[in-house]
Amino acid sequence: MPLSLFSHGVTIGDAGYIQEITGINFVPFMYLGAKHMVTGYDHLLFLVGVIFFLYKLKDIGIYVSLFAVGHSSTLLLGVFADIHINAFLIDAIIGLSVVYKALDNLGAFQRWFGFQPNTKLSTLIFGLFHGFGLAAKIIEFELDSTGLLTNLIAFNVGVEIGQLLALSTILILISYWRKQGNFIKHAYSANVVLMTLGFMLTGYQLFGYFNS
After folding, report:
1. Is the model's pTM score more than 0.85?
2. Burial class (CB in 10 A: 0-12, 13-18, 19+), 74
3. Taking CA atoms, which of 40, 46, 48, 136 is between 20 and 30 Å from 165?
4. CA distance 139 to 11
5. Alpha helices for 85-147 (secondary structure H)
6. Is residue 3 pLDDT above 50, yes or no?
7. CB neighbours of 159 closer than 8 A, spacing ≥ 6?
8. Cα–Cα distance, 130 to 133 (Å, whole number)
């Protein structure tokens, strides 16, 4: 299995680069943030689950903004408060966030427990975990403290740019699928696949935790 499955999406080359540079590097960190989001399979799977049954751009904007607020705030908090959380365990929770959203889309919680959890609140909460996931890896890199706040802000800007690019692609594909007339017919199977991938991500991270 590729080693990237057992970490939070920071390649060896990128890790070495951000460890070596000093001072304010707005554009490089913005690029790294965009790259992280576009190649972050855990983020993308969660976003697919979040917008799967959202049809209005207003609703999509609200949910994506809640995810972004959670992700950005805990990234900054985790780094500056030096909150050490095992990256494998955090990423296992992120995998479970994909499972949770797939089950939510399948209506499992209403059938099992007789109530619907607050979807906006859950999106925000899991956004917090996604942010802590990357913060845990950044702390390990021991970045230069000079200009750290500016660099992290640049990284977050890049994350939002990457998120918009990824989200646009996902929306185009889902919109095309919805027009084919078989969207509802295959929605159940799609979310079962999404749930399975979430369990796989969780399993990979737990394997990494017990073997690290």
Report:
1. yes
2. buried
3. 136
4. 15
5. 87-105, 108-113, 119-141
6. no
7. 33, 34, 36, 37, 68, 71, 72
8. 5
The answer to whether 82 touches 192, Cβ cutoff 8 Å, is no
Average pLDDT over every residue of 82-98: 90
CA distances 111 to 54, 116, 200, Å, are 21, 9, 24
pLDDT at 4: 45
- Show the tokens assigned to 13: 């080359």
Q: Which residue has the tokens 């979310």?
A: 191
d(C-alpha 101, C-alpha 174), whole Å: 17
* Terminal CA-CA length for the chain: 15
Estimate to the nearest angstrom the gap between the alpha carbon of 65 and the chain centroid: 13
143: left (phi over 0), alpha (psi -120 to 50) or beta: beta
What's 1's DSSP letter?
-
Helix (H, G, I), strand (E, B) or coil at 202: helix
In sequence order, the 6+-apart residues with CB closer than 8 A to the CB of 109 are 103, 115, 116, 117
Residue located via tokens 């365990």:
89
Q: What is the pLDDT of residues 46-64, one digit of tens each?
A: 999 999 999 999 999 999 9
What is the arithmetic mean of pLDDT over 172-194? 93
Structure tokens at 188: 């159940």
Which tokens is 87 given? 């990256």
